[in-house]
Design brief:
Radius of gyration: 18 Å
Largest sheet: 9 strands, mixed
Shape: globular
Structural class: alpha+beta
Strand content: 35-45%
Order of helices and strands: EHEEHEEEHEEEHEEHEEH
Helix content: 10-25%
């Protein structure tokens, strides 16, 4: 089966895998792209022989809605990290923000964050980061197909934006880079994955829904 599961905030992607494994009693369950614990939204799950199909989904476009808090950076570029800096936010308006967005649209190179599951020298970066070890990371080619400003709160210094991007794009890193290009620091406070290829959040089912449907043999 290929399942479009809604991952709730505070669950890890592997929490969802283990839960689906427990419900279905299927030994082979995988996910098609990690979502951070603070994020919610579409998590594609494959079971049994259909886990082979997950590689096809990895190459599809991903869509997200994100909220970026300006003025404070964190170790993880999200609310789960420790604050690293507090920087004044310069005067901004939508035109300034849109100009920066243009510079981050299209093919580009992005350095993976230390707090990520990417391996360097056989070790997960987040394992090193938790030991306060920082290593050099090679920039990875990514593509931002669309970067759209949804709203800007100049009083609270929040930017909400939509992004459609290629695999391997870290939205946390994108948000922090945008903040620096605006002359300040920043971190994501909210992140929702709204689509993976043709799999939309409007079609995603909760874990509870899946469990009820499974028990009633509707899947």
């Amino acid at each position: 089966m290929i399942l479009n599961i809604y991952k709730p905030v505070r669950w890890t992607s592997f929490d969802v895998v283990r839960k689906i494994q427990g419900i279905t009693r299927e030994s082979k369950v995988r996910h098609g792209g990690t979502l951070d614990p603070f994020a919610d939204g579409v998590l594609i799950i494959g079971t049994g022989q259909d886990t082979k199909r997950l590689s096809e989904l990895l190459n599809t476009k991903k869509s997200y809605m994100a909220k970026l808090a300006l003025g404070k950076g964190t170790t993880t570029n999200d609310p789960d990290g420790d604050f690293t800096s507090e920087v004044p936010v310069p005067h901004l308006d939508e035109d300034i923000i849109l100009d920066v967005f243009k510079s981050y649209t299209g093919p580009q190179l992005q350095i993976p964050p230390m707090y990520s599951a990417k391996r360097v020298g056989g070790k997960r970066l987040y394992t090193l980061a938790r030991k306060n070890i920082e290593v050099s990371r090679k920039p990875v080619p990514i593509t931002v197909y669309e970067l759209r400003l949804q709203s800007f709160d100049s009083t609270q210094n929040f930017i909400e934006f939509k992004v459609i991007c290629s695999k391997g794009t870290y939205i946390r890193t994108l948000g922090a880079d945008i903040a620096r290009s605006l002359g300040t620091e920043g971190h994501l406070t909210n992140l929702t994955r709204t689509a993976v290829g043709d799999h939309s959040i409007t079609q995603a089912i909760s874990i509870d829904q899946f469990e009820k449907q499974w028990k009633h043999s509707e899947i």
